[in-house]
Amino acid sequence: MNRLSAKTLSGSPTAFAVPDYDRARVTPGIVHLGIGAFHRAHMAVYVDDLLRDSPDWGIVGASLRRPDTKEALEPQDGLYTIAVRDASGTKARVIGSILRVLDANTQRRELLDLMASPEIRIVSLTVTEKGYCYAPATGELDPGHPDIVHDLANPDAPRSAPGMIVAALAQRRAAGIAPFSVMSCDNLPSNGPTTKRIVARFAQLRDPELGAWVAEHVAFAGTMIDRIVPATADADRAMITALTGLEDAWPIMTEPFTQWVIEDHFPADRPPFEAAGAQMVEDVEPFERMKLRMLNGSHSTLAYLGYLAGHQYVAEAMGDPAFVRLIHGLMTQEAIPTLDMPGVDLASYRDQLLERFGNPALQHRTWQIAMDGSQKLPQRLLGTIRDRLKAGAPIAHLGLGVAAWMRYVIGIDENGDSIDVKDPMAMRMMAIAAGAGDDPEALFEGLVALTEIFGTDLPENAVFRDTVVEHLESLFEVGAAQTVAALTHT
Ligand code: CS2
């Protein structure tokens, strides 16, 4: 079977979509840090749609952690397939906007020199919440983070995203080259200002003058990004080969829905993202808050409760009417009242989300979404809870999401089997859980004391405590499925 590549793609016409531009004319304009599945289903597709008329905006990707994306795409000349799937079937499309992938660990000098070259006008990121080396409760850089400690001691050989961005900016400043714009495409609250705060703080710790320069001269664009992208399984690879007749080492599975809202803040030039369907706005934060609280808050609640109830996939959990009522109630009664989105029909947005979560063609694992909860909870559930508590309003559904996360990080499921808890704080949390034993209140006390996650206000709030502990007691006594059923009985 032929492997997907520029050569094999240039053969006979295909029954699936392929790049509609001459890739030989495309030159790099963007370096993207964190060339994972989400980026390849989202931003890289928008850029693929604009390269015919704007060929100087090609993407060079950089993997910061592992070389596997580089190893998969290099023999394919950067080409890969996205499979857009829903109940009506699967549509394959080959994407060509990623020109090459660098492995930051073995090609660091080449990467930094490219980022420092004038042809690169945007550095974008999808490094996930933990890639910002910050305290989730405050959004501030954690100077004690091992990667930050390393990068401050080795400023010319950084391994963190903030370290790399600052090293490249320092090179441009020294060479008199204008800075690139930085664009975060991660699910952080206020991801533009948050990234600016983290990067400028790192620069200041490295050299106060450099820090002042970054704060004054570098633009940080915020975005709201949305597309559901389950991890690729071997069965997906086989399906793509059967569909296209070409082997792709790392195809990407996704849904038809996609949305990109971008704060228009690019003094160093930008491609016409709007020509590819992105929405350019003055203030992206209301859109971010809407998506983080409605989509991602529901997703994390579904992930923990669904996993504990024995549902491997989100769509499976959505097959239980009690789970649908839970998520409908979380959004309708508790999230939407905290949002201010004039002109946006939030009830329709909710209904669309319920349909997306129930997409039967996507095997989106609850375990995948459950990862890194310590980095996700603040912006997905705790911010909404704070607003509800301030308003003296109930938090029953949101509180169950927090309780389910606390039950999940014990690391033992309802059958007594171990849970592979993936989280930067997993060891600390599981030690707390081990000390708490079968006592829900002790578990709450231990975890809520993690100020990096809960800050200092929520541990003191009686309504928060009572709500979460009551749900925890139910999860311990009757399990997730019955707890959800009890909360949502009609
Ligand atoms: C998911 C997100 O894995 C997760 O945490 O909630 O990746 C989600 O699929 C995207 O934000 C959807 O836009």
- Which strand-content bin applies to the residues? 5-15%
**Number of separate helices:** 21
- Heterogens: D-mannonic acid
Structural class: alpha/beta
Number of domains: 2
Explain what the structure shows:
The chain has helices spanning 6-9, 37-41, 43-50, 68-73, 108-115, 146-153, 161-174, 191-206, 208-217, 234-244, 285-308, 314-317, 321-335, 346-357, 366-370, 373-390, 396-408, 426-436, 440-448, 451-454, 462-488, and strands at 2-3, 28-33, 58-63, 80-86, 89-95, 98-103, 122-125, 134-135, 140-141, 181-184, 220-221, 223-226, 246-247, 252-254, 259-263, 279-281. Helix 7 (161-174) crosses helix 8 (191-206) and helix 8 runs antiparallel to helix 9. It has 21 helices and 16 strands. The longest helix is centred in the last third of the chain and has 27 residues, at 462-488. Strand 4 (80-86) and strand 5 form a beta hairpin. The chain folds into 2 domains: 6-281, NAD(P)-binding Rossmann-like Domain (Rossmann fold, 3-Layer(aba) Sandwich), CATH 3.40.50.720; 286-488, Orthogonal Bundle (N-(1-d-carboxylethyl)-l-norvaline Dehydrogenase, domain 2), CATH 1.10.1040. By secondary structure, the chain is α/β, with parallel strands linked by helices. Helix content is 47%, strand content 13%. The protein has a 6-stranded parallel beta sheet. It has a 3-stranded mixed beta sheet with strand order 5-4-14, sandwiched between helices. A 3-stranded mixed beta sheet has the order 12-15-16, covered by helices on one side. The chain is globular, with a radius of gyration of 23 Å. The structure holds D-mannonic acid.
